[in-house]
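Holo model, protoporphyrin IX containing FE. Inputs:
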Amino acid sequence: QSTAASDEVFQGMGGKPGIEKIVQIFLPIVLADDRIKDSFKDTDMERLGTLLAEQFCHLGGGPCKYSGKDMKTAHEDFIITNAQFNALAEDLQLAMEEYGVPSRIQNKLIAKLAPMQREVVTK
Ligand code: HEM
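Output:
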C-alpha cells in the first residue's frame, strides 16, 4: 500500500474527465433516491456537481483545489441522518461502478469520505 502513487484514486477514477462523468452519473441517481432526494430540492445541482468534482479530484490526490464551503458549514442548515449519509455513499458507489472504477479504488474514495460523516450528519 505504501508504494501506491499518491494520485492513484484520481487516476483510478479516470482523471478529471472520468470524475466529471462519474458526477454526471451520480447526481441523477441522488435525485432519484427517495431516501435523500428531498434534501436537494432547492439546490443548484450544476454548482454542486462542479464542487463535487473538485472535491473528489482533490481527495483522490489530483491537481484540483476545492473551492466550496467546508463540510460542516455546507450541511448544518439541513437535517441529515447517518442513514442518509450511507445512502449517498451507496449512490456514489453505484455511479463509480457504472463508470467502471475498480472496486479497490471505489473503496479508497469512500474511505476518504467516511471521516466527513460527523461533519455532514446533523441529526
Ligand atoms: C460524504 C458525503 C458528502 C459529501 C462529500 C458532500 C459534499 C458536498 C459538497 C462539496 C457540497 C457543496 C458545498 C458548497 O455549497 O459550497 C455539498 C452541499 C450539499 N450537500 Fe452534501 N455532501 C455529502 C453528504 C450529504 C448528504 C448525506 C446530504 C443529504 C442527504 C447532503 C446534502 C447536501 C445539500 C442539500 C447541499 C447543498 C446545499 C445548498 O444548496 O447550498 N450532502 N455537499
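The chain has seven helices and no strands. Residues 36, 39-40, 43, 48, 51-52, 55, 68-69, 74-75, 78, 80, 84-85, 88, 113, 116, 120 surround protoporphyrin IX containing FE (CB under 6 Å).
Archived with the compound record.
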